[in-house]
Specification:
The protein has 190 residues and is an alpha+beta fold. It contains six helices and four strands; from the N terminus they run ααβααβαβαβ. Helices cover 40% and strands 15% of the residues. Strands 1-2-4-3 form a four-stranded antiparallel sheet. It is globular, with a radius of gyration of 18 Å. The chain starts with 11 loop residues before the first helix and ends in a 22-residue tail after the last strand.
């Protein structure tokens, strides 16, 4: 049994509807212990054959500087000149960066199942974090495909960065964005 105590007062449906992607964080530290507790619950995501096709890389403290520099080095010279300093400042200010790594499989069906499982794990993590008062944004930017970034991060051949989670206590909670009703997207065949 985990030791997480909920800070959220509502149903699972409320938690799902109220969760937001947070991009602006307070500077308050987030403990590694809390991240591990969240991950240890998140790994209960459904995954075919219990393959558990994931691993994690956490950047905290001075590691955020290494992450920021590895990310900015993937920019073109023009973009580095234009945005580099601002991006370095932003990524160094985010309390934690968590890379979610997928162990790739050459069999397409297995790869699809494993990627879906990793996405379920990420959603579990986001919901659990929100329940604890933490904000998360799940990013899949181009730098995750760049060989220089992958090498700097320690991503091995045969692995995919399924996402980078930026984590911290929210400075700003974005407002709700509308969703299309399922009725408008559902085809029923009788």
């Amino acid at each position: 049994m985990h030791s997480l105590e909920t800070k959220f007062q509502g149903s699972i449906a409320d938690l799902i509807r109220e969760r937001r992607s947070v991009r602006l964080f307070k500077t308050d530290p987030v403990s590694t212990e809390l991240v591990l507790e969240l991950l240890n619950v998140s790994v209960w995501a459904p995954n075919h054959g219990n393959r558990q096709p994931w691993r994690f890389i956490l950047y905290r403290g001075e590691g955020r500087t290494a992450f920021a520099h590895a990310m900015v080095q993937t920019y073109s010279a023009e973009d580095r000149a234009k945005y580099g300093a601002k991006k370095l400042e932003y990524y160094q200010s985010v309390p934690l960066h968590l890379l979610i790594i997928l162990k790739e499989d050459p069999r397409q069906k297995v790869w699809d199942e494993d990627y879906a499982a990793v996405c379920c794990l990420i959603q579990n993590f986001q919901l659990l974090a929100w329940e604890q008062g933490l904000g998360v944004v799940w990013k899949t930017n181009n730098y995750g495909y760049d060989p220089k970034f992958r090498e700097s991060a320690g991503v091995m051949p045969g692995e995919k960065i399924a996402g980078v989670l930026h984590i911290g206590y929210p400075e700003v909670i974005p407002s709700e964005r509308p969703r299309t009703a399922a009725e408008d997207l559902l085809t029923i065949i009788e």
